[in-house]
Amino acid sequence: MADEVPFEFLHMELVAHIHNTSTKEENDTCIAKLESLGYRVGLSLIERFTKDCSRFKDELDMMKFICKDFWNLVYKKQIDNLRTNHQGVYVLQDNKFRFLTQLSNGKQYMEAAPKYLAFPCGLIRGALCSLGINCIVTAEVSAMPACKFQIQIQRL
Amino acid sequence: MSRQAARTGDPRKVNGELFTLTYGALVAQLMKDYENDDEVNKQLEKMGYNIGVRIIEDFLARANSGRCNDFRDVADVISKVAFKMYLGITPVVSNWSPAGDEFSLLLENNPLTDFVELPEGHDSLNYSNILCGVLKGALEMIQMDVDVKFVQDHLKGDNITEVRLKFIKRLEDAVPVGED
Questions:
Q1: Do A7 and B18 touch (CB under 8 A)?
Q2: Low-confidence ranges of chain B (pLDDT < 70)
Q3: Which of B15, B51, B58 sits opposite A73 (nearest CB)?
Q4: For residue B101, what is the domain's CATH number?
Q5: Would you call B14 exposed, middle or buried from its count of C-beta atoms within 10 A (0-12, 13-18, 19+)?
Q6: Mean pLDDT over residues A1-22, rounded?
Q7: Is there a contact between A69 and B62 if contact means CB atoms under 8 Å apart?
Q8: What is residue B3's predicted lDDT score, i.e. its pLDDT?
Q9: Can you give the pTM of this predicted structure?
Q10: Total number of domains constituting chain B
Q11: Which residues constitute the domain of residue A111?
């Protein structure tokens, strides 16, 4: 079964739609819209995904869960590298991020990368929010198709 | 490892849910953007079409199913191979027209509508209309002009979801689509 294919195509259409309908709006609005869609999906997805899980030990344990199980679920691979400063910043590196593999590897489409990363950022934020962690997620691409997601925990 | 196993439920199932939830978010966004059911239907079909014209390539590469001799073969491949591969269901092919150019796909459980209830006042919304677009787009790429539409929808209180496909003609010249 190749059920990841429809999701990938759907995501492409989603990005295209959001950008087509808002010609006058700033690019930022589109990114925000996609992010909030991702947030909503992440929120409900993790709820169903973790319903038979054992309790998480700590924050790092949750991050590992995101890197392994969650990533595997959504992108059929694991995060390649997880780093943290132990003060609430985590960097997840994916050397071959699925949504970027369809784009050219050169620098030509670098500008197009952010719109394909907004939804995934939202997914992570939604998932972590559901697990009880408030955070800000940003993404960064230096060489396609590798991508870094930075998670900054918001403590109150 | 044991812990890992305990943690992950059924990834296959949840992956399907990822698609369902994302689709739901998309439809909700469209409802916000257009506020008119017919317009949303149209938009969904258009997006489906865009997916269809590209997914057919993926399908042919994966399925390796050979040529279809007639429309009945096409129907079988759609239900038993394509739907099975991408959505994990096998719709029943039935209600053939006497001429053999029209049939229905009966979906007993439609994964797209897993967590969905239509709110009041959206009787003309075809929630899963993207499927029509995908089928139309994909078939067009293999030189078949087919009319696809929803006849019954479980969401609207019908017993079953029924998609009707009507063969119109064979496209002779494959003019690149979308070049307008």
A1: yes
A2: 1-14, 174-177, 179-180
A3: B15
A4: 3.30.1380.20
A5: buried
A6: 86
A7: no
A8: 46
A9: 0.88
A10: 1
A11: 4-153
